[in-house]
Every structure is written in structure tokens, then in C-alpha cells.
Amino acid sequence: MSAFRTPNFRGWKVVVLHREDAGLQRLARQLERFGVTAEFAWPKLEALDPTVKAVFFDGDSGYDGLFPWPAGQPPVPLIALMRSEAPGRLEWVLAQGIASHLIKPVQSTGVYSALVLASHSFARRQEQEARLAALKQRLKLRPEVVRAVLAVMRLGEIDEDKAFACIRAAAMERRITVEAFCAAADEASLRALLPRRLQSGGFGRG
Asked: How many domains, in total, are found in the chain?
């Protein structure tokens, strides 16, 4: 993972999904100290403003359908406000994909740490998901690589290693993956990878 830099939270906008109580007033004061604007909502978040950077929510009273996205797929860091330690309640909160939490009642400390940890955890999760998606795409395109290598072997009458080397060099030149290059390549473009003396197909192996 790339190095994580602690965000400057000044100018951030967050949503707090929780019934009003004294703890929320302390939370609001802490957020204001860091230059964070808080919007409060309950009992449901109908839609998420694209300018919102994080969501605090009541983990003790949360329920399925609380958020306008599928469970476990939050578009921003989620920070649970928790008092309960009941196993079923903890399981539900974890299933939402939280990035951090705060113990209730909210005190005058801990909010900054929760924001930092949530930002780091969310960024790491996004990076891991991006790497996994890229890997799945590359595996999906593996048959295209085999197709392209066989075609270059046939067109140039060369062995597998030389055929793959031609393809890899072309992909690197275009700054794309071998898989992406092969998926887009037709016979004409594959033939063009070969040295001119091999493009007629009569040079022989080696």
C-alpha cells in the first residue's frame, strides 16, 4: 500500500445518523474544532451528498436499510457510535463495513483518532479492492493471451518465448497490461509486431 498521509479534516463535511442526545453535542463540538461540518439525520439516510467525506452512525440502534447503499459497500468511511457489546449487534455493525468506532457516550477526546483511523482503513480497503478487481480482470483475459501468443507463433513461425516477448514489448510500449493488449489485438496488429522479415511467415523457427 502507498504511504498514508493524515488528512487535513478542515473543510470536511460528515453526516451523523443518530438521535439527538448530549453525546452528539460533544461530538459536534469536537468536529467543529477540526473544521468539520456535521449534518444530523435520523432515522434513515435517504441519499448521500457527494461532498460528504464520512458517516457516523448509531451502531446500537442501526438496522438493515439504514443506508442508501448495499450492506458492506459504503462509499465513504463509516464510524460506528457504540455502547452495546452484544454479539449480534457487533456482527451487524461489522457487516456494514465500518472503518472505525467510538464508544458511547461520546467524550471530549477520541473523535480525531476515529477520523484518522477510519480514513486510513477506508483508503486501504479501496486500494485492496482495486488490486483484486485488476487481478480478476487479468485472469479473465488469460485466454486472450494464449490466443495472441499462438497467433504470433503461427504468423512468424517462432517459438512461444519469442512470441510472448513480442507481445510484452508492445504492451509495455503502450503502457498497458499484456492482457489488455491481447484482448484488443486482431491478426493484423499481431502480425505487425513481428520483424519485417518474419511477417511473410516464411522465415522458420528460432
From this structure: 2
